[in-house]
Fold this protein.
Amino acid sequence: NEDGTWSFSSQYNYTWIWSSLTFGVTVMLGAFAGKIMKEGKANRKKVVQILLLIGLLLIGLAELWSLQMPVIKRLWTASMTLLSGGYCFLLMALFYYTRGLNWLKVYGMNSITAYVLGEVVNFRCIAASVSYGLEQYLGNYYLVWLTFANYLILFLLLRVMYKCRLFLKV
């Protein structure tokens, strides 16, 4: 306006601002977890304790906040951000404790490739042609097999890239 104040159209939807903030928090939680694990390599037990504590704290905060702002995944509300972050911290603590993170490096080092291949290429077709005739034995679980095989083929491709030290970056 001429007087220097801001005014928006009444039809303008402001939800993108809030969803951008929650996306930023999600990214920062992931970066924070990575920093904790990277800096705590010398004391794995302490790292696990910190990850568990933060995970439980985030879940508690999400449950408390859900009294005012419900947990809605589709809208990715702030309480949903904290809840999913808490679950991720708990899972990260479990994987870090069991040293089960190595297979996740295969995905993490080429996450863009994994995303693009997963969206563009349907490896289920390959799995279906290789496992032709299995449907009569698996019945309704044949679709589960195809989905599993789809991700297995993707993982094997990413693993070859990882072994060859081929990492796609932006």
Notes: The helical segments are 15-39, 44-65, 78-97, 102-109, 111-120, 124-130, 135-138, 142-163.
